[in-house]
Write a structure and sequence with these properties.
- A hairpin with a 2-residue loop joins β1 and β2.
- The protein has helices at residues 43-50, 75-78, 95-105, 110-123, 139-151, 169-184, 196-199; strands spanning 3-14, 17-28, 32-36, 57-63, 66-67, 81-84, 157-161, 188-192, 204-210, 213-216.
- The two termini are 29 Å apart.
- The chain is of the alpha/beta class.
- The strands form two sheets. It has a six-stranded mixed beta sheet with strand order 6-7-8-3-9-10, with helices on both faces. Strands 2-1-4-5 form a four-stranded antiparallel beta sheet, with no helix packed on it.
- Helix content is 31%, strand content 28%.
- It is globular, with a radius of gyration of 17 Å.
- α3 (95-105) crosses α4 and α4 crosses α5 (139-151).
- The mean pLDDT is 93.
- The protein binds adenosine-5'-diphosphate and magnesium ion (MG).
- Adenosine-5'-diphosphate (ADP) binds next to α1.
Length: 224
Protein backbone atom coordinates (compact mmCIF):
# COMPACT_ATOMS: atom_id res chain seq x y z
CA UNK A 1 0.00 0.00 0.00
CA UNK A 2 1.46 3.35 -0.93
CA UNK A 3 1.87 5.81 1.91
CA UNK A 4 -0.39 8.84 1.94
CA UNK A 5 1.59 10.63 4.61
CA UNK A 6 5.16 10.18 5.76
CA UNK A 7 6.64 12.36 8.49
CA UNK A 8 10.21 11.98 9.67
CA UNK A 9 11.88 13.45 12.71
CA UNK A 10 9.14 15.38 14.53
CA UNK A 11 10.29 17.22 17.64
CA UNK A 12 8.15 19.50 19.75
CA UNK A 13 9.06 21.15 23.02
CA UNK A 14 7.20 23.42 25.38
CA UNK A 15 9.86 25.40 27.20
CA UNK A 16 12.42 22.93 28.52
CA UNK A 17 10.03 20.01 28.16
CA UNK A 18 10.47 17.81 25.11
CA UNK A 19 6.95 16.59 24.38
CA UNK A 20 7.38 14.81 21.05
CA UNK A 21 10.40 13.15 19.52
CA UNK A 22 9.08 10.93 16.76
CA UNK A 23 11.44 9.13 14.42
CA UNK A 24 9.00 8.35 11.63
CA UNK A 25 5.31 7.85 11.04
CA UNK A 26 3.78 6.49 7.89
CA UNK A 27 0.06 6.38 7.14
CA UNK A 28 -1.00 4.16 4.27
CA UNK A 29 -3.69 5.46 1.94
CA UNK A 30 -7.16 4.23 2.84
CA UNK A 31 -6.16 2.84 6.24
CA UNK A 32 -7.37 3.86 9.70
CA UNK A 33 -5.17 4.52 12.71
CA UNK A 34 -5.98 5.07 16.34
CA UNK A 35 -3.53 7.02 18.45
CA UNK A 36 -3.58 6.13 22.13
CA UNK A 37 -1.49 7.37 25.04
CA UNK A 38 -1.93 8.84 28.48
CA UNK A 39 -3.45 12.26 29.00
CA UNK A 40 -0.81 14.86 28.29
CA UNK A 41 1.30 12.48 26.21
CA UNK A 42 1.06 14.73 23.15
CA UNK A 43 -1.69 13.17 20.99
CA UNK A 44 -3.56 16.40 20.36
CA UNK A 45 -0.32 18.26 19.77
CA UNK A 46 0.76 15.71 17.17
CA UNK A 47 -2.57 15.92 15.33
CA UNK A 48 -2.33 19.70 15.38
CA UNK A 49 1.20 19.58 13.98
CA UNK A 50 -0.01 17.37 11.13
CA UNK A 51 -2.88 19.80 10.53
CA UNK A 52 -0.46 22.72 10.34
CA UNK A 53 -1.98 24.34 13.42
CA UNK A 54 1.03 23.97 15.68
CA UNK A 55 4.68 24.44 14.86
CA UNK A 56 7.23 21.70 15.39
CA UNK A 57 10.64 20.80 14.06
CA UNK A 58 10.09 18.34 11.25
CA UNK A 59 12.90 16.79 9.24
CA UNK A 60 10.79 15.76 6.28
CA UNK A 61 7.16 15.30 5.34
CA UNK A 62 5.62 13.90 2.20
CA UNK A 63 1.95 13.78 1.32
CA UNK A 64 1.12 11.42 -1.51
CA UNK A 65 4.79 11.49 -2.45
CA UNK A 66 5.02 15.30 -2.59
CA UNK A 67 7.37 17.00 -0.14
CA UNK A 68 5.52 19.50 2.07
CA UNK A 69 6.44 21.87 4.87
CA UNK A 70 3.94 21.58 7.69
CA UNK A 71 4.81 25.00 9.13
CA UNK A 72 4.18 26.48 5.71
CA UNK A 73 1.05 24.54 4.88
CA UNK A 74 0.32 24.58 1.15
CA UNK A 75 -3.18 25.57 0.07
CA UNK A 76 -3.65 22.31 -1.84
CA UNK A 77 -2.87 20.35 1.34
CA UNK A 78 -5.56 22.27 3.24
CA UNK A 79 -8.02 20.65 0.86
CA UNK A 80 -6.68 17.18 1.51
CA UNK A 81 -6.48 17.24 5.30
CA UNK A 82 -9.27 18.05 7.74
CA UNK A 83 -8.82 18.30 11.49
CA UNK A 84 -11.78 17.95 13.86
CA UNK A 85 -11.27 19.42 17.33
CA UNK A 86 -12.36 17.52 20.43
CA UNK A 87 -14.78 20.36 21.22
CA UNK A 88 -15.76 21.56 17.77
CA UNK A 89 -16.52 25.21 17.33
CA UNK A 90 -19.79 25.91 15.54
CA UNK A 91 -20.61 29.45 14.59
CA UNK A 92 -24.03 31.02 15.00
CA UNK A 93 -26.44 30.11 12.27
CA UNK A 94 -27.99 26.89 11.15
CA UNK A 95 -26.49 23.43 11.04
CA UNK A 96 -26.61 23.65 7.26
CA UNK A 97 -24.67 26.95 7.31
CA UNK A 98 -22.00 25.34 9.41
CA UNK A 99 -21.68 22.34 7.13
CA UNK A 100 -21.67 24.52 4.02
CA UNK A 101 -18.93 26.80 5.31
CA UNK A 102 -15.96 24.97 3.78
CA UNK A 103 -17.75 24.44 0.48
CA UNK A 104 -18.55 28.15 0.26
CA UNK A 105 -14.92 28.97 1.03
CA UNK A 106 -13.98 26.82 -1.94
CA UNK A 107 -16.23 28.84 -4.18
CA UNK A 108 -18.78 26.09 -4.80
CA UNK A 109 -22.07 27.25 -6.29
CA UNK A 110 -25.27 27.36 -4.25
CA UNK A 111 -27.13 24.49 -5.92
CA UNK A 112 -24.25 22.06 -5.63
CA UNK A 113 -23.63 23.18 -2.05
CA UNK A 114 -27.22 22.55 -1.05
CA UNK A 115 -27.14 19.09 -2.50
CA UNK A 116 -23.93 18.12 -0.68
CA UNK A 117 -25.08 19.67 2.59
CA UNK A 118 -28.34 17.74 2.40
CA UNK A 119 -26.40 14.52 1.83
CA UNK A 120 -24.07 15.31 4.73
CA UNK A 121 -26.99 15.98 7.08
CA UNK A 122 -28.59 12.69 6.07
CA UNK A 123 -25.25 10.92 6.55
CA UNK A 124 -24.96 12.28 10.09
CA UNK A 125 -28.60 11.42 10.82
CA UNK A 126 -29.39 15.00 11.79
CA UNK A 127 -32.52 15.49 9.72
CA UNK A 128 -34.65 16.12 12.82
CA UNK A 129 -32.39 18.85 14.14
CA UNK A 130 -32.31 21.18 11.19
CA UNK A 131 -34.24 23.97 12.90
CA UNK A 132 -32.04 24.01 15.96
CA UNK A 133 -29.49 26.86 15.93
CA UNK A 134 -26.03 25.30 15.79
CA UNK A 135 -24.80 27.00 18.96
CA UNK A 136 -27.66 25.42 20.94
CA UNK A 137 -26.71 21.83 20.10
CA UNK A 138 -25.44 19.42 22.74
CA UNK A 139 -21.81 18.33 22.73
CA UNK A 140 -22.67 15.10 20.95
CA UNK A 141 -24.76 16.84 18.32
CA UNK A 142 -21.95 19.33 17.73
CA UNK A 143 -19.59 16.44 17.15
CA UNK A 144 -22.00 15.02 14.54
CA UNK A 145 -22.11 18.38 12.76
CA UNK A 146 -18.33 18.64 12.91
CA UNK A 147 -17.94 15.19 11.35
CA UNK A 148 -20.47 16.03 8.64
CA UNK A 149 -18.69 19.35 8.03
CA UNK A 150 -15.41 17.47 7.63
CA UNK A 151 -16.79 14.70 5.44
CA UNK A 152 -18.60 17.02 3.06
CA UNK A 153 -15.17 18.26 1.96
CA UNK A 154 -14.05 14.73 1.05
CA UNK A 155 -10.51 15.14 2.34
CA UNK A 156 -7.97 12.37 1.82
CA UNK A 157 -6.96 12.50 5.50
CA UNK A 158 -9.18 12.96 8.56
CA UNK A 159 -7.49 13.95 11.82
CA UNK A 160 -10.00 13.44 14.63
CA UNK A 161 -9.23 14.39 18.21
CA UNK A 162 -11.07 12.28 20.81
CA UNK A 163 -14.37 12.39 18.95
CA UNK A 164 -16.28 10.39 21.58
CA UNK A 165 -14.81 11.92 24.74
CA UNK A 166 -17.39 13.49 27.08
CA UNK A 167 -20.41 12.33 25.06
CA UNK A 168 -23.50 10.74 26.53
CA UNK A 169 -24.16 7.11 25.66
CA UNK A 170 -26.48 7.71 22.73
CA UNK A 171 -24.38 10.41 21.09
CA UNK A 172 -21.31 8.27 21.53
CA UNK A 173 -22.90 5.39 19.60
CA UNK A 174 -23.96 7.73 16.81
CA UNK A 175 -20.45 9.15 16.56
CA UNK A 176 -18.91 5.67 16.56
CA UNK A 177 -21.20 4.66 13.70
CA UNK A 178 -20.06 7.66 11.67
CA UNK A 179 -16.41 7.00 12.40
CA UNK A 180 -16.85 3.42 11.42
CA UNK A 181 -18.35 4.58 8.17
CA UNK A 182 -15.45 6.97 7.55
CA UNK A 183 -12.94 4.24 8.26
CA UNK A 184 -14.71 1.84 5.89
CA UNK A 185 -14.61 4.41 3.10
CA UNK A 186 -11.56 5.17 1.01
CA UNK A 187 -10.25 7.98 3.15
CA UNK A 188 -7.38 7.72 5.60
CA UNK A 189 -8.25 8.34 9.25
CA UNK A 190 -5.98 9.13 12.19
CA UNK A 191 -7.81 9.55 15.45
CA UNK A 192 -6.68 10.17 18.98
CA UNK A 193 -8.88 8.25 21.34
CA UNK A 194 -9.33 6.20 24.49
CA UNK A 195 -12.61 4.68 23.43
CA UNK A 196 -12.20 0.95 23.51
CA UNK A 197 -14.96 0.33 20.98
CA UNK A 198 -13.18 2.52 18.43
CA UNK A 199 -9.77 1.07 19.22
CA UNK A 200 -11.17 -2.39 18.57
CA UNK A 201 -12.89 -1.59 15.29
CA UNK A 202 -11.92 -4.07 12.58
CA UNK A 203 -8.83 -3.13 10.54
CA UNK A 204 -7.87 -0.34 12.93
CA UNK A 205 -4.09 0.10 13.19
CA UNK A 206 -2.90 1.01 16.64
CA UNK A 207 -0.31 3.65 17.37
CA UNK A 208 0.75 4.53 20.88
CA UNK A 209 2.45 7.66 22.16
CA UNK A 210 4.82 7.11 25.04
CA UNK A 211 7.69 9.29 26.22
CA UNK A 212 7.24 11.42 23.14
CA UNK A 213 7.71 8.58 20.66
CA UNK A 214 5.09 6.77 18.64
CA UNK A 215 5.17 3.03 18.17
CA UNK A 216 2.86 0.59 16.45
CA UNK A 217 1.07 -1.72 18.84
CA UNK A 218 -0.53 -5.01 18.04
CA UNK A 219 -2.58 -5.31 21.21
CA UNK A 220 -2.79 -2.73 23.96
CA UNK A 221 -1.64 -4.32 27.23
CA UNK A 222 -4.56 -2.79 29.10
CA UNK A 223 -6.99 -4.67 26.88
CA UNK A 224 -5.39 -8.07 27.04
N1 LIG B 1 0.91 25.90 24.45
C1 LIG B 1 1.41 25.08 25.39
N2 LIG B 1 2.34 25.50 26.26
C2 LIG B 1 2.85 24.67 27.20
N3 LIG B 1 2.49 23.38 27.32
C3 LIG B 1 1.57 22.91 26.49
C4 LIG B 1 0.98 23.72 25.46
N4 LIG B 1 0.12 22.96 24.77
C5 LIG B 1 0.15 21.72 25.32
N5 LIG B 1 1.02 21.70 26.34
C6 LIG B 1 1.33 20.54 27.19
O1 LIG B 1 1.71 19.47 26.36
C7 LIG B 1 1.25 18.25 26.91
C8 LIG B 1 0.57 17.42 25.84
O2 LIG B 1 -0.66 17.95 25.54
P1 LIG B 1 -1.65 17.25 24.52
O3 LIG B 1 -1.02 17.18 23.17
O4 LIG B 1 -2.92 17.99 24.64
O5 LIG B 1 -1.76 15.76 25.10
P2 LIG B 1 -2.92 14.69 24.91
O6 LIG B 1 -3.78 15.11 23.77
O7 LIG B 1 -2.20 13.39 24.66
O8 LIG B 1 -3.67 14.65 26.22
C9 LIG B 1 0.37 18.60 28.08
O9 LIG B 1 1.09 18.35 29.25
C10 LIG B 1 0.09 20.06 27.91
O10 LIG B 1 -0.03 20.71 29.14
MG1 LIG C 1 -5.78 15.56 23.67
Amino acid sequence: MSPLLVVEGVRKSFGARRLLDIAEIELAAGESYVLTGENGSGKSTFLRVLAGLERAEVNACRFDGRPVELHNYPVWLRREVVYVHQHPYLFRGSIADNIAFGLRARGMGRAERRKLVREAIAWAGMGDLLDVPAHRLSGGEKQLVALARARVLHPRLFLLDEPTANLDAEARLQVIALIRNLCDANSTVLLACHDREIIELPHMHRLHVENGAIAARAVLPAFR
